[in-house]
Sequence to fold (160 residues):
Amino acid sequence: MPTAEELAIQIADRPCAFGRACRALADRGVNILALQSFPVSTGASLVRFVVDNPTLAKRALATEGFAYTETEVAEVKLAHRPGALAQAASRLADAGININYTYCGVEPGTNPPLLILGVAEAGLAMAVLDQAAAEAAGAERLRLVFSAGRRLSARLPAFS
Fold:
């Protein structure tokens, strides 16, 4: 699982401020993959986003007069099933990694959901989650082999 570059801007809480930032990106062909926006003070909001082309996005934002910050974040693809997020969060907690914030988006092209995790050590978080995914895949393969073996033996005639 990769890390991603997150861009964050602060915008005024007024009509067109958010739209102006999005239009600046769209006009340069930058696709927003994940987004989070929330008020940080009276009259201002923080907008965090992951885009498909951070270099173009930074140029677009600077040209429009938006100051931005850059942060490395963990970009996670989770199974769409109950407990998947709990398992990932528990693995990070076991490794001493705190999740500061989260938000969602979609993977370009195929559109499966992405979970963006704001953590102090994105690279370490991804290593922990990659290991957990490898272990889960190995356990799933073992379960499938065992299950297929049980089905096969159930079809064999009983010998006395």
Notes: The chain has four helices and six strands.
